[in-house]
Specification:
Helix content is 21%, strand content 40%. By secondary structure, it is α+β, with helices and mostly antiparallel strands. It has two domains: 226 residues, PmbA/TldD fold (2-Layer Sandwich); 247 residues, no CATH class. Strands 1, 2, 3, 4, 5, 6, 7 and 8 form an eight-stranded mixed β-sheet that branches. The chain has a five-stranded mixed β-barrel with strand order 10-17-18-20-24. Strands 13-12-11-16 form a four-stranded antiparallel β-sheet. The mean pLDDT is 97.
Length: 480
């Protein structure tokens, strides 16, 4: 891989590039699923190629190829330079990159047991057992259990002298039971909805989730939902579980603070942002209980790495601190626009895509409350758990989220179960209504492997740490 990167960089320099970087990426993926007692899918794929990004005549050019001979890679680099020169004819201003150090390094993510070495029979046996555990309730008519694995090996090199090797394994598992009640299908998921939980790690991470042991409980909760009360339409206090807070951070803090969206460089997929450049260090994003940090150094997180895809080291940087908006997520190209260095948030979905500003591990920092004390401190409200759907406008300002399950809170105690709970809000007002966050004991990093952005679309694997949190005066039961 290092040789291939060297060929690309040399060819780009000879063609006249003032800057060049190249990434060789090998990605192996596997997905296995069982649905209602039958094997639904067993899929495995592999992708290998190189992407070459250059600056020539002050503009970007990018080209990629899966044909990894010296001649084709050199031709790919020359094509990137030709594209840059063509782009320069309409460029508003020359590209300026924030400075970065030169690194010769190797980084590897945690993995004790390579999941690709585990026999398929063992994986299927785990899923079949989990699926059987889900089908223990008469009203549960559809069940699903799935596993997925990703292995990435890549080498990055730049004309500035960096050469960086990185490799990691991602593993995810999830189960869901669908109960039929009053003409509607009610899902109950574990460890999370939309595919479950995803982490950096190997087969040991799957075993730790214990999807088989949790299956009967999930089925029982799904069955109970079939006869649960609907969510009332009211304005009340809500306590939201960590997995839903993670998605709330993703949609209403993560995307609007991506600097390329704010600058208007990325608007094709899911819009821009309500945040402005002049809001930096002035916008009250939330209450004093809200601090959100971007930290790509969290071990085992889906959003962790040694270096981003521009060779910028992983780092920890506050985006919101004590409620005040203090930082954007940036790249080497966007950071100079706010007078700062890149905080390492440029990543690409594979070898044939350019790096975009993407979330890493963006987390709501824990507070001081235990979950039990937070419930006991709440006289009247609703506790919501596990996302089922979401909707947010293209500026990431107005939103509505629905969850799988909820419980009434009465006189400091959890009461009756509620089905299809939902809530709505406006981003700064909602975060401003946060008056308590649970402690580190309840804080967990949740992986999100399906974050779409860009055109052609790229799917990033990101993560968010969160603990349950309380919000006052929230509208729930929207549309009821």
């Amino acid at each position: 891989m290092k040789h291939l990167v060297s060929v690309a960089l040399d060819a780009a320099a000879l063609a006249g590039a003032s800057y060049a970087d190249a990434r060789v990426v090998l990605t192996t993926e596997e997905r296995i699923s069982v649905r209602t007692g039958r094997v639904e899918a067993v899929e495995r794929s592999e992708s290998l190629g190189i992407g070459v990004r250059v600056i020539a005549d002050g503009a970007w050019g990018f080209a990629s190829t899966s044909s990894l001979t010296d001649d084709t890679i050199a031709a790919c680099a020359r094509q990137a330079v030709a594209i840059a020169r063509a782009s320069s004819l309409t460029a508003a201003a020359p590209i300026r990159l924030a400075p970065v150090g030169v690194f010769d390094d190797v980084w590897r993510g945690p993995c004790e047991i390579d999941p690709f070495s585990v026999p398929l029979e063992d994986k299927l046996a785990l899923l079949v057992a989990a699926d059987e555990g889900l089908r223990t309730q008469d009203v549960v008519t559809v069940t699903s259990a799935s596993l997925s694995f990703v292995k990435v090996e890549k080498v990055f090199g730049s004309s500035e002298g960096s050469i960086i090797e990185q490799s990691y394994v991602e593993s995810s598992a999830g189960i869901v039971a669908y109960a039929l009640g009053d003409g509607e299908m009610l899902p109950r998921s574990y460890p999370n909805s939309h595919g479950g939980q995803a982490v950096q790690g190997g087969w040991e991470a799957i075993l730790a989730l214990d999807i088989v042991g949790n299956a009967p409980r999930v089925a029982a909760e799904a069955a109970a939902l079939a006869s649960a009360l609907p969510c009332p339409a009211t304005t009340t206090t809500v306590i939201i579980d960590g997995s839903q807070i993670a998605l709330q951070v993703h949609e209403s803090v993560g995307h609007p603070t991506e600097l390329d969206r704010v600058l208007g460089d990325e608007a094709a997929f899911a819009g821009t942002s309500f945040v402005r450049l002049e809001d930096l260090d002035t916008l009250r994003y939330g209450s004093e209980h809200v601090s959100v940090v971007s930290d790509a150094t969290v071990q085992g997180s889906l959003g962790s790495f040694g270096y981003d895809d521009e060779g910028v080291p992983a780092q920890r940087d506050y985006i919101v601190r004590d409620g005040l908006f203090t930082g954007f997520q940036s790249s080497r190209e966007s950071a100079p626009r706010i007078g700062r260095a890149s905080n390492g948030c440029a990543r690409a979905d594979g070898w044939n895509r350019i790096p975009l500003v993407r979330m890493a591990t963006l987390s709501l920092e824990p507070g001081a409350w235990s979950f039990e004390d937070l419930i006991a401190d709440t006289d009247d409200g609703i506790y919501l758990e596990t996302n089922s759907s979401w909707s947010i406008d293209d500026r990431r300002l107005n939103f509505q989220f629905a969850c799988e399950i909820g419980w009434e809170i009465k006189d400091g105690k959890l009461g009756r179960m509620i089905k299809n709970p939902n809530y709505t809000g406006i981003t700064p007002k909602f975060w401003g209504a946060c008056d308590a966050v649970c402690s580190q004991d309840h804080w967990r990093v949740w992986g999100i492997p399906n974050c779409g952005k860009g055109e052609p679309m790229q799917v990033a694997h990101v993560a968010h740490g969160a603990a349950p949190a309380r919000f006052r005066d929230v509208q729930v039961g929207v549309g009821r």
